[in-house]
Write a structure and sequence with these properties.
The protein is an all-alpha fold and 117 residues long. The protein is built from 4 helices and no strands.
């Protein structure tokens, strides 16, 4: 095999390798990582049961149910939920994410604020 032919094969591989890597990465994400992210923390029963608002989209192209278990009564959790937001008690997220999103003046509260109950 002459050098020109060898050079052509090598350059073809160099161009195809990133494409093959992208396809394999996409497939790995779609079939292994994405299903886990879409059902993060949810029990099989929570995934199966209907949720509020399901009737608004009768035939969704995709679904997702994420959940977290909190060892507290709903009456103890609700005041924390209703105060979430910009201009309220914050988002209780990572401060670096809030700064990255341009939300520099957010201060996440460490207490329930009565004005938002």
């Amino acid at each position: 095999m002459d050098r020109e032919m060898l050079g052509m094969k090598r350059s073809s591989c160099v161009r195809i390798a990133p494409l093959v890597g992208a396809v394999l990465g996409t497939l790995a994400y779609r079939y292994t990582i994405r299903p886990r992210l879409r059902m993060w923390g949810a029990t099989p029963e929570e995934i199966r049961r209907p949720m509020a608002g399901d009737e608004m989209v009768p035939h969704p192209s995709t679904t997702g149910t994420r959940a977290i278990t909190i060892a507290a009564r709903p009456d103890d959790v609700w005041p924390w939920l209703v105060q979430i937001g910009y201009g309220r008690a914050g988002f209780y997220s990572y401060a670096w994410i809030e700064r990255l999103m341009g939300l520099k003046d957010i201060a996440n509260s460490d207490r329930v604020m009565p004005e938002y109950e």
